[in-house]
Design a protein that fits this description.
The protein is α/β, with parallel strands linked by helices. The protein has 30 helices and 23 strands. The longest helix has 78 residues, at 2-79. Bound molecules: ligand C2E and calcium ion (CA) (2 copies). One calcium ion binds at residues 673-674, 694, 696, 730.
Length: 830
């Protein structure tokens, strides 16, 4: 019969398929379990290496700290070798010695006592009420015996009321005494273990000499010797605090020098432990031991679990396939698993696995809500690597990534689990902190982070350790939105960066005005040029003898979309610091030349002065920029004056003078701006091919105040005369100044008395007296009729000035002229 045969054949192929699936599943599970075990082993090894490095650097730090205390205690004793216990303890309290060094059980000074003075020393030692010793305490020489000399503690501060060593304990007795006394001769510190009863202490004895320096010869050292600064450490505390975040490790701290060696251990390492020995400076080493996860699948419970689960899954999947004959359910499971994966990817940074910006914002949102409900305070820290871009460029992105991963790991170690740590992108991390008493905590946490990050990163034994620093911005308190909290932390970070990096700053309300504005301006400037927010205003320059206009200086203004007009003193430093001044300066040259060429075409013959910043002068490009601006506009080079400030010339005289020669060869003129604020010496001025000195307005203002200031201006003018330069005086505000300057034979003047910086159309109509482009009919009502001789009249100043009656701002001859820039500048300045 054909039918049963077909049925049998189908069942057979089902079984074959089922068996194949199960076999594949089993093989896959075995393979997967093996991979898990391997991966875990590798991760365990990495984390062991990281942990031991961390522990070693913590111990290194602790021991370095100890040395700080030795130095400062030494300073105290050297300054006052006869100081009383009371004075010493007051000093130790004032420097917070015990709270700052938790591992310290006692510290002080010990001295050598010759046998002849033993009795006197003993009787003095027992009656020291400051250290809690009354006449009743017994001075028991330990170990007993007659020796030529003894070493006793003289000044001491104790953590607990009682000393760990008995009164009368002789440091110089026995074997340990040999190395203590040797340290007096060698000038090097000695470390000795002292055990009394069940308590073992580590005592570091650092010899101290008169004057605070170690004399050159042994004989001189013996003569100048004062005593030792002794620190008694509880090694248990030291080891415990280093191990706080690494419960799986066992560490031994070892000291070996000459014949003496000491070791303190936090416990007994497991039999098959991995070990790493790290030298932590001088004679100190740390051995860290920890057992790694058991090798192979059978030794790793997770891998074993995976194997079992894999087997079970294969069998059940096979069954499922048999039962349902379809993959629908599996598809559903797969979809939900994939969704979970995607969700994780969407909210986490792939490199470090930390929450990303979106998740961090969400966590801040919840944090703020929780705090409002509970009346607690939220805090956030913005952590940013210093000069990461540099490092990435020089060491490559692979190292950069490795570093970011290591930093994320350190943040985890330093901050425990309670705090959210996220990565906002690049080298920016954020940390959220909650707690009841937050006012002080974030700064403490930040200090700890700064310290932890300063420890070198060691990626491979073959490469040099990497040392980096971070800057931290802290914000504490409520904010309406997560963005606001982050932005304020960012403002504090900007401040920390500009304050020299490697530091933390807390956001304060005063930053609302200063730092925040700067931060926001800096941000807005990025778009200002392409959004056409810059414009030029022009301030006339006058010939002093007849007050005719001979030139104009182009001055930059920024029309900020929300703030309004921003003055150059506020934004030019920002443009200079981020390098944008190069593009903006190029635009100023082009726009100024274009405008002046147009005025020349309309009949004007005045010159154009343009300010060029120090950053522009740093590169040859400035010469090309000037050439291009002249060629594009058609302005004759002799009509352009480039102004460079005196301080810029002084910065790098060599380059500056070379660049000025190149500029000069284009046929333009050069002026030294703000003259008098730098060195102002004849010798250096001769090196630059300049044509004009613009004397800084500070001297103009001072002129009315004293004879000395008048003499100063005279000197500056004289200096320029000797070099046959044109002398221009800036900031002329009163008619008295004009009269005085006439007496000094100044050539040209510029200032609010005649005219402030003006919008181009105002300048053209009221100062240059040019017809507006197009037609005369477009003139505003009340403005002057066109002059019959435009060229001659164009250079005539306000005639009232010639009689000493001028008002501020030449443009005021046109009462209906649109508000000039000078008005708004003064409002802001005031
Ligand atoms: P500066 O080159 O010394 O320009 C003269 C400044 O003095 C101008 O300030 C002008 O408004 C002001 N001033 C003119 N007459 C008087 C007066 O009688 N009394 C007082 N108190 N001040 C007077 P402004 O426009 O705010 O420019 C400030 C500085 O910004 C300029 O000083 C210049 O160093 C810089 N700057 C302006 N525009 C540019 C530019 O396009 N490029 C570069 N690199 N710097 C520029
Ligand atoms: Ca200038
Ligand atoms: Ca100036």
């Amino acid at each position: 019969m054909a039918f049963p045969g077909r049925l049998r054949g189908r069942r057979a192929s089902w079984i074959v398929g089922w068996a194949l699936l199960v076999a594949l599943g089993v093989a896959g599970s075995l393979f997967g379990a093996e991979a898990v075990a391997h991966h875990r082993q590798q991760k365990a090894r990495q984390s062991f290496a990281q942990s031991s490095a961390d522990v070693a650097s913590l111990l290194r730090l602790a021991i370095q700290h100890e040395q700080d205390l030795v130095v400062s205690a030494g300073g105290f004793v050297v300054a006052d070798p006869g100081a009383s216990d009371g004075a010493f303890i007051r000093w130790a309290d004032a420097v917070h010695a015990l709270p700052r060094y938790p591992e310290l059980s006692a510290f002080g000074e010990s001295v050598v006592v010759p046998a002849a003075s033993l009795a006197a020393f003993a009787s003095r030692a027992v009656a020291r009420p400051e250290v809690g010793l009354s006449g009743g305490d017994v001075f028991r020489l330990t170990p007993p015996g007659n020796r030529a000399l003894y070493c006793f503690s003289k000044l001491e501060q104790l953590r607990s009321g009682r000393a760990s060593l008995p009164l009368g304990y002789d440091y110089c007795a026995g074997r340990q005494g040999v190395s203590v006394l040797a340290s007096r001769d060698s000038g090097q510190a000695a470390s000795v273990a002292m055990r009394v009863g069940r308590v073992s202490s580590l005592v570091v004895e650092t010899p101290l000499y008169r004057g605070g320096v170690v004399p050159a010869t042994i004989a001189a050292r013996r003569v100048a010797f004062l005593g030792w600064i002794d620190l008694t450490l509880a090694p248990g505390v030291l080891l415990r605090s280093a191990l706080a975040n690494h419960p799986g490790l066992v560490i031994s701290l070892r000291y070996a020098r000459g014949g003496s060696s000491l070791a303190f251990s936090s416990g007994r390492p497991p039999a098959a432990a991995d070990r790493v020995v790290t030298n932590i400076g001088g004679e100190w080493t740390v051995e860290a031991a920890g057992s790694l996860a058991g090798a192979g699948v059978l030794g790793d419970p997770d891998a074993l679990a995976l194997l079992a689960a894999g087997l079970a899954l294969s069998v059940s999947l096979g069954l499922l396939m048999l039962i349902l004959g379809s993959g629908r359910r599996r598809a559903v499971a797969l979809v939900s698993q994939k969704t979970e994966e995607l969700r994780h990817q969407a909210l986490h940074d792939p490199l470090t696995g930390l929450p990303n910006r979106a998740l961090v914002l969400d966590r801040i949102d919840r944090l703020l809500a929780r705090n409002r409900r509970n009346g607690t305070v939220a805090g956030a820290m913005y952590v940013d690597l210093d000069d990461f871009k540099n490092l990435n460029d020089t060491l490559g992105h692979a190292v950069g990534d490795q570093l970011l991963i290591a930093i994320a790991a350190r943040l985890h170690i330093a901050l425990r689990n309670a705090d959210t740590i996220g990565r906002l992108g690049g080298d920016e991390f954020v940390i959220l902190i909650e707690g009841d008493d937050l006012e002080a905590t974030p700064t403490l946490v930040a200090e700890r982070l700064l310290e932890v990050m300063r420890q070198p990163f060691e990626f491979a034994p073959t490469t040099a350790p990497l040392v980096i620093t971070v800057s931290i911005g802290i914000v504490v308190g409520d904010r309406a939105t997560p963005d606001e909290l982050l932005r304020d932390a960012g403002v504090a970070l900007t401040l920390a960066k500009s304050g020299g990096k490697n530091r933390a700053e807390v956001f304060g309300e005063e930053m609302n005005t200063a730092a925040r504005q700067r931060y926001e301006l800096e941000f807005d400037l990025r778009r200002a040029l392409e959004d056409h927010q810059f414009r030029l205003v022009y301030q006339p320059i006058y010939q002093l003898d007849d007050l005719t206009v001979v030139g104009v200086e182009a001055l930059l203004r920024w029309d900020h979309p929300t703030i309004g007009v921003v003055q150059p003193n506020e934004f030019i430093p920002l443009l200079e610091s981020n390098g944008q001044i190069l593009q903006v300066g190029r635009w100023v040259l082009c726009e100024g030349c274009r405008q002046m060429a147009l005025w020349h075409a309309q009949g004007s013959d005045v010159t154009l002065s343009v300010n060029v910043s120090g950053r522009q002068l740093e590169s040859d490009a400035v010469v090309d920029d000037v050439r291009a601006a002249l060629e594009l506009s058609g302005l004759p080079p002799s009509m352009l004056i480039v102004e460079v400030t005196e301080t810029v010339l002084m910065r790098d005289t060599e380059t500056a003078s070379r660049r000025l020669v190149d500029l000069k060869s284009l046929g333009i003129h050069l002026a030294v701006d703000d003259f008098g604020t730098g060195y102002s010496s004849l010798a250096y001025l001769q090196r630059f091919p300049v044509d004009c000195l613009k004397i800084d307005r500070a001297f103009t203002r001072a002129m009315g105040e004293s004879r000395a200031s008048r003499a100063l201006i005279r000197t500056l003018v004289q200096l320029g005369r000797n070099l046959e330069l044109t002398i221009l005086v800036e900031g002329v505000e009163t008619t008295e100044q004009v009269d005085r300057l006439r007496g000094e034979h100044v050539d040209q003047v510029q200032g609010f008395l005649m005219a402030g910086p003006l919008d181009p159309d105002v300048l053209a109509s009221s100062i240059l007296q040019l017809e507006p482009e197009g037609a005369a009919g477009s003139r505003r009502p009340g403005s002057r009729p066109p002059s019959p001789q435009p060229v001659a009249a164009s250079s005539r100043a306000n005639p009232a000035l010639g009689r000493g009656l001028g008002r501020r701002g030449g443009q005021s001859s046109d009462p209906s002229a649109p508000t000039d820039d000078q008005g708004s500048a003064r409002k802001r300045d005031g």
